[in-house]
Every structure is written in C-alpha cells, then in structure tokens.
Amino acid sequence: MTTTHPHRVAAKQQWAEGLTVFAAVMLAIIGVLDILRGVMAIAQDEIFVATPSYIFAFDLTGWGWVHLLLGAAAVVISVGLFRTALWARIAGIVLGSLVIIANFLSLPYFPVWSLVMIAFSGFVIWALCVVRRDEDPYARMPRDL
Fold it and tell me: Is 140 helix (H, G, I), strand (E, B) or coil?
C-alpha cells in the first residue's frame, strides 16, 4: 500500500491550477487579438495581403466577422476558465481548435499574425488537455455548469 505525500499532492494541485490560469490568460489574449483583427478586417480590408487564386478565398469582411465572433467567444470562455468552470475547459478546447482552423484558412491574408495565433491556440489546447481530472484542484468542488 502506498501513501500519498502531502507535498506531492500540493505540487500537483499547484501545477493543475497554474495550467488552467495559463490557458485562461492565453485565451483572453487570443480573444482580444482576434477582436482587433476582426475590427481591422471589417473597417479597412486593404491592410491585409491580397492573395490571388487562393483556394480558400473569402471576402475579407466575412473573415473579419468570423474573427470578431471567435474573439468574443474566447474572452467569455477565458472568464469561465478563471472561475474554473468545466464547461469553459471543454469550450476552450473546441474554440482553440476553431481558431486554429480559421487562422490556417486565413493564412495568406495576414501570415505572421495567423502563425502566432495558431501557436497561442496550440498552447491553450495543450494546457487544457494536460491536466487530468484527479489533478484538478477544483475536481471535488461543485462547478457552475
């Protein structure tokens, strides 16, 4: 029979809490950047690179609305992550995946920004997936669903 040392349990709880806060902060940054990108695309789409004959060519105003909505959802979900809500963890993984897809499809219009957003979203997905349920410091506490 093995005994669990209190300092190991505390370290795992701190690790889990730290990753959740990291994901919340990163998702808030992604949200704000996506909102700004959406506003730029809606207001002045001539600041973006024009790529002829791109297979996933869409109207830049349409892309602006997509990024604006994704950004607003990211900010709302990051607030839920700060409150350690289970729905926010699941929604954060889904939203991070959608942000990666949207930025991949809009890569030719603003390449550097898209790559940064893809990397940020990958970190968010990793942080939300790596914490196991038994390591979650709030696993035994009631969650707001």
Answer: coil
Structure tokens at 130: 């790596």
Rounded to whole angstroms, the Cα distance separating 90 from 128 reads 8
Rounded to an integer, the average pLDDT of 31-49 is 80
Share of the chain above pLDDT 90, in %: 33
Q: What is the 3-state secondary structure (H, E, C) of 95-144?
A: HHHHHHHHHHHCCCCCHHHHHHHHHHHHHHHHHHHHCCHHHCCCCCCCCC
Q: pLDDT tens digit string along 79-127?
A: 999 988 889 999 999 999 999 998 898 887 778 888 999 999 999 999 8
Residues whose CB is less than 8 angstroms from the CB of residue 127 and which lie 6 or more positions away in sequence, other chains included? 19, 20, 22, 23, 26
